[in-house]
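Quick one:
INPUT:
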């Protein structure tokens, strides 16, 4: 039987477009300075500031209390952030392998991939699973996943017509990374 609740970590990782690349980078480099993150991630200052703020609010990133020396990182992962960074690194590696650029996912992409992988293949089932998501957000997320080649939509010849969603081969790779 499919899971009836979305994974909270995926909802948090999807809450900001750049959280997955940010956490993966901080985990790989054991912290970083703001300017290093700007250059490695290719973000604007505002986007990086918002993403760092969101990660700090969740409790994954903190300013390094020992910062001050030019070689010490300005931002480091908390203990909870290290676990999230491990999952983010797996997801970022899968995105890279598939050919998706960093930050290419929508807020609901990761939970949608996990939901479809768990057997929720109809729109209403996904809507119930991801209850805080609006139908418009789910529709846009499913469309984006379809354009990226991760999800395939099958129209069923029923009255009224219905759709069924399935992961493609590359979608299965992403689901493996997402569901860990």
């Amino acid at each position: 039987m499919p899971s009836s609740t979305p994974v909270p970590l995926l909802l948090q990782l999807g809450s900001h477009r750049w959280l997955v690349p940010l956490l993966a980078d901080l985990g790989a480099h054991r912290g970083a300075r703001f300017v290093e993150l700007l250059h490695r991630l290719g973000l604007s200052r505002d986007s990086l500031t918002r993403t760092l703020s969101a990660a700090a609010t969740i409790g994954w990133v903190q300013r390094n209390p020992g910062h001050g020396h030019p070689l010490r990182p300005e931002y480091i992962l908390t203990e909870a952030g290290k676990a999230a960074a491990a999952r983010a690194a797996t997801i970022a590696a899968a995105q890279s392998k598939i050919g998706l650029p960093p930050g290419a996912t929508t807020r609901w992409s990761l939970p949608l991939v996990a939901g479809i992988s768990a057997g929720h293949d109809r729109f209403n089932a996904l809507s119930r699973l991801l209850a805080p998501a609006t139908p418009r957000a789910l529709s846009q997320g499913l469309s984006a996943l379809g354009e990226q080649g991760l999800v395939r939509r099958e129209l069923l010849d029923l009255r009224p017509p219905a759709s069924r969603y399935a992961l493609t081969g590359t979608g299965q790779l992403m689901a493996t990374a997402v569901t860990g």
